[in-house]
Amino acid sequence: MANLLAIANLAWLQINPGGNDESKVRLEQLIADAKTEYAYQLWLKLMAEKREEGMLEVPSYLLTEKEMEVLDNQMDVSYLKIMRSLPSEIWLQNIGGLSCTCRYVKSTLNLSQVLCDDDSLGDNARTFFVVGKKIIFPQGTHKDKLPLIYANGGENIDDFIEIDESIGAVVRRTLVEMYLGKVPMEDKTNNSNPDK
Fold it and tell me: Does 136 reside within a domain?
């Protein structure tokens, strides 16, 4: 797997061959652009897959499992780095684990209002839906802590952002196209002014 930060750094060095800190385009700017371009390119790839295959699967390298606390029938996900650009809330892959003792079924706010007291799901199933940065469980949960499997933004604790190589190549090409030729020449006079 490729590293998005390394790709942004390579593009920055291509755009700024001198690689100095006085460049008008900062590396941090390229990293921020690389992250948004990556999310967009992943979205395009998944939409193409959905058209061709008729279904949409989140790449396994983006999935993270974490045990989360439930307070007042709500789970706070505000501090998680979630790949929110995925359509139809598919960033949220599973709640409650893979066992069948208690199944949690994804719903929406509108469906929950329409089906209010509908108990056709069975005794071992409960619904949930996402509102902003929290997950709401209208029928409550069977435990105070539940496992959550979600699509992360690609980052891990070492700032290594693992991405598919084919998307990485597109991201690098896009960054270079965005900036190359639009950035002033290197400051060879060392007077902190590349324009003179």
Answer: yes
For 1, how many CA atoms within 13 A lie in the half-sphere containing its CB?
14
**Pair (173, 140) in one structural domain:** no
Residue 83 covered by a domain: yes
Instruction: Tell me how far apart the alpha carbons of residues 77 and 95 are, in angstroms, rounded to a whole number.
Output: 12
Helix (H, G, I), strand (E, B) or coil at 89: helix
- Phi then psi dihedrals of residue 157, to 5 deg: -65, -20
DSSP string, 180-195: TTSSPPP-SS-SS-TT
Which domain range does residue 110 map to?
60-151
Residues of the chain below pLDDT 70: 18-23, 100, 109-123, 154-159, 182-196
Tens of pLDDT, residues 3-31: 899 999 999 988 887 666 666 778 889 99
β-sheet with 145-151: strand ranges across:
63-69, 145-151, 92-95
pTM of the prediction?
0.72
Residues 100 and 145 in one domain: yes
- Looking at the structure, tell me whether residues 64 and 135 fall in a common domain: yes
